[in-house]
Amino acid sequence: MNLPDRLPPVADGLHLWSPGHAGTWGFANCLLITSGEQAALVDTPYDRPMTEALLAAARPVLPAGAAAVRTIVNTHVNGDHTFGNGCFPGAEIIATKASAEHLCREPSPQQMHFLTHQTPADQPLGWYAREHFGRYEYEGVESVPPTTTFSGRYALTVGDIEAELIEVGPAHSAGDLIVHLPRQRVVCAGDVLFADDHPVHWDGPLARVAGACETILALDPEVVIPGHGPVMSVEDVRDHVTYLRELEALVHAHHAAGVSVAEAAADILASGFHDHLGLRERVVILTAVEYRYLDGDAGEVDVVGLAAQAAAWAYRDHGPGRS
User: Are 186 and 222 in contact (CB under 8 A)?
Assistant: First the structure.
C-alpha cells in the first residue's frame, strides 16, 4: 500500500497527511495541528498500519516537547476517519453529540472484517468489499468513541493556534463538523467534500450537504481540505455545490415523475452525469438517500444495505469476467 512518508505544510502549524488513491474507499485526509509543545490531529486513518505510517511521517514536524498527540477531532464517525483513534491512548477525542449518538449504526471493525473475509466473493457485496476494503486490517481494532461532545460550535486551542469546530450535520452523516482555522484561512471539511470521486452521503438530503459547503464558502478560506482527495480551492468548492444542485434537480425530477429509485439512479448514470469522476456507483447511494428524504422516511439508515445497492451496480459492469 503506497502511503505518504511526509506531511507537507498547508499553513503555519498545519501539516497534511493525504494518502490519495482516487477510485477507491477508505483513504481519508488527516490534518496535524502543532504549536508550542501541543499537537492535535483532525481525523485518524482506517487501520493501525495506516495510523503507524502517519505517525512515522509526522515525527519530523511534531514539536520537540510533543511526545504524543493529545487531542483528536473526528469530523464524523465513519470508520475511515476514526478507527485509528485507538492508537492514541489517553487522547481527548472531540466530536459532535449527534455523531456520538449515531455511532451504534456505523459498521464496526468486526463487521468490516466479516464483509471482507466471510461474505461470498462471487456475489456483488462480497466482491465489492474485497475490492475496496480488503486491503485494510480490521482484526484487533476497537472502535473508540468520543470523550468530548458538543452541539453547534466548539472553540479549540492548540498552543497559539485557534480553531473553531462548527457542526454542519446532518449532511454526509448525522453529525458532521468542519474545522475552521481563521488565522491560517484553512477549513478542514471532512466528508461534506470529496475531490476526484463522486461523493457518498448517508444522511443528506443533498440540500443539507450543499448548505454545509456554503458554510465553508462563507468562512472565506484560502485552502479547503476535503475528506478525501487533494486540497481544494474556493472555486473547487463552488463547483462541488453546482454538482450537488444538479444531482438534486435530477433526482427530484425522477421522483416527481414516479420513477423508481433504481430506475432513477440507472438513468442518471446512463446520462453520463459527471462521469469524469471515479466511483460512479456512489450515485446509486446518493439517489437512494435522496428518495428516503423525499418519501419522508425518518428511519435509521442501513449503511451496509445502501453499499450493497452500489455494489450490485458496480458488479454488473466491473465484476469478475466483465470489462
Answer: yes
> How far apart are alpha carbons 83 and 141 in whole angstroms?
7
- Considering the entire predicted model, what is its pTM? 0.95
CB of 7 closer than 8 Å to CB of 17: yes
Neighbours of 312 (CB within 10 A): 17
Cα three-residue angle 307-309-315, rounded to 5 degrees: 95
Cell readout for 87 is 492508537
Question: Could you tell me which of 173, 174, 178 has the C-alpha nearest to residue 163?
Answer: 178
Please tell me the chain's helix, strand, coil percentages from 3-state DSSP, rounded to the nearest 5. 40, 20, 40
C-beta of residue 34 within 8 angstroms of C-beta of residue 15: yes
Q: Is 26:19 a contact under the CB 8 Å cutoff? A: no
How many whole angstroms separate alpha carbon 274 and alpha carbon 290?
Answer: 18
Q: Fill in the amino acid letter for 136.
A: Y
What is the three-class DSSP state of 71? strand
- Report d(CA 7, CA 226) in Å as an integer: 16
Residue entry with cell 498527540:
69
Query: Burial level of 60, CB count in 10 A (0-12/13-18/19+)?
Result: exposed
pLDDT tens profile 224-267:
999 999 999 999 999 999 999 999 999 999 999 999 999 999 99
Distance, CA of 52 to CA of 50 (rounded, Å) = 5
